[in-house]
Amino acid sequence: MTDKNTLTQRYLTVLNDELGWDAVAEEDGDVRFTLEVGPVAWLSNYAPADPEYLQLITGLPLTKLLAGLGVDFDPSSKADLQRLLTVTSAVTRSVKGAQVSADPLRDAIEVSVEVVAAEHGRMPSVDHLAAILPRMRSMLVAGLRTLREQLTELAAPGDSVPDAAAS
After folding, report:
1. CA-CA distance, 134 to 9, in Å (whole number)?
2. Three-state DSSP class for residue 61
3. How far apart are alpha carbons 54 and 116 in whole angstroms?
4. Where are the domains positioned within the chain?
5. Cβ pair 12, 31 in contact under 8 A
6. Which helix (H) or strand (E) holds 43?
7. Residue-wise pLDDT tens digits, 88-145
8. How crowded is the C-beta side of 40, counted as CA atoms within 13 Å?
9. How confident is the model at residue 157 (pLDDT cuts 50, 70, 90)?
10. Sheet with 98-103, side-by-side order of all strands
11. How many Cα atoms within 13 Å fall on the side-chain side of residue 41?
12. Phi, psi at residue 40, to the nearest 5°?
């Protein structure tokens, strides 16, 4: 069985010593680092129950993201919610490995990449983590970039993102 501290140290060894990502540990055992596109990303620590499960995730305040992109959004509007869900679904389908979720009630939007990287109950090796984490990071960044592009289209005249009913 792998304890949280051991897995956190493994993550830090890989992220800092092998990949040079300048990661730091959080109090809960998760590890965070800054993405080249701005926001912070976390590598979640699921030890001792699931040390083999990797979740690389980033999140932003939904209203801040939309306002920064010039998108008018009313969380009480069914049409606005449908448009937002259409975009998050489209990004999830189009960007390999990326999952996008929006929760207007929490004012949150998240992009994650999740994999099982070892057999159940075992933590991934340093070599395996060093091999897969750069690809996971590129998938996360691609998902975030595509999300921003798709959301920007919501602000464009003519609303080029299709309605949920048309999907």
Report:
1. 18
2. strand
3. 6
4. 4-166
5. yes
6. strand 40-43
7. 999 999 999 999 999 999 999 999 999 999 999 999 999 999 999 999 999 999 999 9
8. 13
9. low
10. 24-25, 31-34, 40-43, 53-61, 108-116, 98-103
11. 29
12. -80, 145
